[in-house]
Amino acid sequence: MGLKGRATRERLIRVTGSLLETAPMDQIRVADIARLAETSPPTFYLYFRGVADAALAAINAHTQSTPELLQMIAADWAGDGQVQARAFVETYFAVWNGQAAIFRARNLAAEAGLPGFYAARERAVRPLMQALSARIARQQAAGHLPEALHPASTASVLIALLERLAAIAGAHFEDEGITQESIATSASYFVALAMQGQMPGICMQSTK
Length: 208
Description:
By secondary structure, this protein is mostly helical. The chain folds into 2 domains: 3-59, Arc Repressor Mutant, subunit A (Orthogonal Bundle); 67-196, Tetracycline Repressor, domain 2, CATH 1.10.357. It has helices spanning 3-20, 30-36, 41-47, 51-59, 67-74, 81-98, 100-111, 117-141, 151-168, 180-196.
């Protein structure tokens, strides 16, 4: 593939990603992608088998395992780990919300069994899960967490918790007193518990 071909392919991927922010994948047409990318449907099919193939390429350009999150896991959480946990939770929420439409499209396609999307979801979270698992194992070795906890399983639970909360944190259930701030406070408490292996304090203030 030459420079022109790579540029065309990248343009098609960018357009598909932008369309995923406004419409479900099954409502996006090849003709729409080609038109916005200033090319033709036959050209589209030179690079992709269909909309799902282009969407998968767009999705693979995004990850939940960002360098910032991985660095935060590796850092020394000496002192009040609740502050570090709050920063970690808020950073994760920001990562998710920055690409929420892409991640939602990926998860829905993965749950529907579309080829490639489950693997894309796994690739996006695996480095984060491995880093969390390694930290949890170190806390176990130091005697701060129960030996009965399986590190990778515990890491998976944390990621599932954060992923789900990030998806709903923007919705305010004011009649129940549930806000984005209260969700972040509760989530950071459990993250601190797993990451430090001791009962943490409560950080009520945002770190942003």
